[in-house]
Amino acid sequence: MAQAVIVNIVVGKLANIIAKEIQFLGSVGEKVKRAQRELTRIQSCLKDADSKGKLDERVHNWLNELRDVAYRIEDTIDTFFLEVDYNQNHSFLQKLKKQPNMLLIHELGTKLDSIQNELEEISNSRENYGIIALQDIPVGEAVILPSRRATYSEVDETEVVGLHADRDNILKLLRCEETPRRAVITIVGTGGLGKTTLAHMIYKSAMAEFEYHMMLSVSQQFSLTELLKRMLRQIIDSVPKELDVEYLMRELKKKLSSRRYLIILDDVWQVDVWNHLKNALPDDKNGSRVLITSRSINVAISADPNMEYKLNLLDDQKSLDLLLKKALPNQKPSEELLKLANELSKKCKGLPLALVVVGGILLTKDRNYHAWGRVLRTMDWHSEGRDCMDVLAMSYEDMPYYLKACFLYLALFPEDCQISARRLIRMWVAEGFIPQERTKTIEETAEDYLYELFQRSMIQVSSRHVNGSIKRCHVHDLLRDLAMHEAREENFVMGFSKESDSKKPNREIRRASFHSLKSHNDNSHLRNNLLHLEYSRCLLLAGGHGWSQIPNFRKFRLLKVLVLDGVINHDVDLVRGLENLVHLKYLGLRRCQIPISKCSFHRMKVLETLDMQGIGTGVEVPNGLWSIDTLRHVMCSKPFELPKTTAGLKNIQTLQWVYFNKKMPLLSNLCKLGIVIVDDCTDPIGFTSNLFVTLPSLVSLSIDSGLRHDNFTLLRMEVVYPKALPNYQDLQSLYLNGVWSANVPLDARLFPPHLLKLTLEISGFYQNPMPELGKLKSLKKLCLGEKVVNWMVYRSGRIFCPAGFPVLQYLKLGYHSMKSLTVAEGAMPNLKYVNVNDRSIKFHLPPELQHVSITYKYNY
Predict the structure, then answer these.
(1) How does DSSP assign 538-591, residue by residue?
(2) Averaged in consecutive runs of 10 residues, what is the pLDDT profile of the chain (860 residues)?
(3) How far apart are CA 175 and CA 159, in angstroms?
């Protein structure tokens, strides 16, 4: 029910205005209150209206009328504040005192009167359709979710059911010595069967048996050039950006020649994928294997007609097992719940994705007959051939209003996108989806919402931070299709790509994303589509030179979120158009090449996030940035100077990177800090002694003593190292880059006691640091850069890890000349992953660590 999402957002906006600005609007303020009260009353009817709207076209039209009025309220309010130039140079009160503009207020009141009349008509007409208000939550609606922080380290993806025999069968094909030729095995089946999950299981089991191994997602948005580059990056350190297909194919074939390799291509839709790629994969009759997953039988026939592997639906017992594992983890159901679970599992017709989704819904319900019975009764199974989509749609309808907006927002991102959780959360916050709770930061509440989407199986976790929180996530293709359908129907989100229809889009679309533009001659109709979206609150544009002719942003005056990913455009007029976006709260400029330093931020008085990571050389902080007191997150790959006064940084949580050359100011909310300490630092020791007095909330700290910057003299790490660190209980992540004096011994007592992740890019160690680092009892991830390992192995080329590291799970070593890694018996008992550069390295691991996964590309 996307209409409910829209109404909920507008009600929240009106409540915010009533709380902050109502006293300045006089009699018009009362009209804002009336509109909010009427919408709130209508909200209580929406659940009943939605259930009737599926069967009654009149009710469906009623919901659409409500949506349109809600949008008009939002536009009226936002445009009003824009026209009075809200928060330009003065507060709203000061602005009206200096330049009383009663005409604008009068116009606002007139528009609200008209809207109020429509709202009352809509409210009165609901009785004609039999729509009732649902004031009480029905039995079974109570949501019982485990605490996110209590379960992060324990909760994992739902345990696999029914795929182990398939895994073993395919492993036999991979290992068959009677087939030395390059065999291409294709797993074929409908969406939601678990093909990707099965491929991951196979990859994990078999990758150590091959010299080269890689698993890549292909998807519908297939680009041969990009796929070849991604494959090469699995083998070599860097791939030039501008290379033609022929060169990439020759290079890949040369690197794979005479090597035994395993390549998994997940989610292949087109026959052409294999037809193009096969010429780059040599067949040296050495048992190399290619594994493909696809929904298309034609892909299997084209690749290797004798190696098709059809994945089937689960039988009734396995369906029930999977449902219960998700709905009742580690618990045995009562007889009455078992009976209901059996009926529900049969409705899913053996489709694992549907079973996982239904299990996720049951997980949020009271564990009694009434709650689970209501789920069974309210599921819409009537449409033959749409069993899975009905189940998925039901999971969406079951979500509370606040979560629906967050789920629909995922339609912004392209297929198979690995979505950064931090970025997503900050965009949600900027959109106003997340309420401020008394005992949490708004980001913590948003993190809870993301985790609830995971618990409901609406997203899948791709990777986690060492503290267990979600780092990256992705959306299953079918669930993404559901989000796109619901969002597009209500003009909530529209995604555009080079395959998009060239017809003019609806100007009422609230959020839009544009992908797959590679050159300024590519898909000009997409750029033309952009011109019609002046009411958008969010724009996401990606694709290099494809936006060299981007329109000026003065047209998009109501934007709250603007994301430019990898956009290349050197037009100064482009960035100056950003100055007019007075409602902007999130500005993402990752990997862009635009003259952002020419833009003044003085009018962006509500900006919360500025992301300039990888934006290019010569970047300076935009003028006026530090005067914005709503700033929460500022990230840039190149360090920048802090302002002389930090009065405007009272809400700042992330600063990465900044130069430090004076006493650190008091930033009580700062959680993540990256600093570069240079040779003209007036008092590095003063910094170290005051660090945790001025930064009490810090959980992540990165210190660079100038080693990466040629124009600075190196500072000794032991000089700038914060002496107070051992006393800081909450610091979880520490990155150090610099030089350590040979005569200063490394001591585990120098580090915070509860440190989870440690990254060292320090040269100068003349002793093996592993004995001391092994004493860090909470350390889960250790990354030793090339300079550290260089000093460790400069004599023998060997690294020895003695006893210690009781909870370490990830070990990364970045040095090409390392010959061997030896782990003593009993050391690193929880080690799961080792990442090194050189494939010739010999590993001497105790028997209990033979299962450890070893990869060969070093990165942080």
Answers:
(1) EEEEEEEGGGTTPPPGGG-TT-SEEEEEEEB---HHHHHGGGG-TT--EEE-TT
(2) 70 73 69 79 66 63 80 82 57 47 74 83 74 43 37 45 91 91 90 87 90 87 84 81 84 92 91 90 94 88 89 90 90 92 86 86 89 80 51 74 89 90 96 88 94 84 91 87 86 76 69 72 65 85 66 81 85 78 91 81 88 75 84 89 75 88 72 79 52 77 67 55 76 86 76 91 73 93 75 64 91 76 90 83 86 69
(3) 26
Contact partners, residue 568, CB within 8 Å, separation at least 6: 544, 545, 547, 548, 592, 593, 594
User: DSSP per residue over 671-729, as a string?
Assistant: -EEEEEE-TT-S-HHHHHHHHHHH-TT--EEEEE-STT-TTSPPPBHHHHS-TTGGG-S
Rounded distance, CA 413 to CA 494, Å?
10
Q: Judge whether 554 and 580 are in contact, CB under 8 Å.
A: yes
Predicted confidence at residue 836, as pLDDT, reads 84
Q: Facing residues of 349 across strands? A: none
Residues 419, 422, 425, 426: is their CA dihedral positive or negative? negative
Would you call 263 helix, strand, or coil by DSSP? strand
807-817 CB burial, b ≥16 within 10 A, e <16: ebbbbbbbbee
Q: What is the DSSP letter of 312?
A: P
Could you say which DSSP state residue 77 is in? H
CA distances from 24 to 6, 92, 97, 106 (A): 26, 8, 10, 13
Looking at the DSSP assignment, which residues form a beta bridge with residue 821?
799, 843
For the record, the structure tokens of 556 come out as 């998009």
C-beta of residue 520 within 8 angstroms of C-beta of residue 548: yes
Angle between helix 2-20 and 477-489 (nearest 10): 60
The whole-angstrom distance between residue 132's C-alpha and the CA centroid of its chain comes to 39
- Residue 53 DSSP label: H
Beta strands in 582-653 (DSSP E): 586-588, 609-612, 633-641
Q: Is 291 helix (H, G, I), strand (E, B) or coil?
A: strand
Strand partners, 286: none
Q: What angle do CA 45, 46, 47 make, to 5 degrees?
A: 100
Sequence-distant (≥ 6) Cβ neighbours of residue 235 within 8 angstroms: 212, 214, 252, 255, 256
Q: Is 41 helix (H, G, I), strand (E, B) or coil?
A: helix
Cis peptide before 428 (omega within 30 of 0): no
Query: How many Cβ atoms are within 10 Å of 696's Cβ, its own excluded?
Result: 14
Instruction: Report the candidate in 756, 754, 755, 791 with the shortest Cα–Cα distance to residue 770.
Output: 791
Q: How crowded is residue 242: how many other Cβ atoms within 10 Å of its Cβ?
A: 4
- Could you tell me the CA-to-CA distances from 175 to 109, 210, 283, 655 in Å, in that order? 75, 10, 16, 50
pTM strictly above 0.85: no
Structure tokens at 105: 């207020």
CA distances from 443 to 427, 435, 453, 458, 633 (A): 10, 10, 15, 20, 11
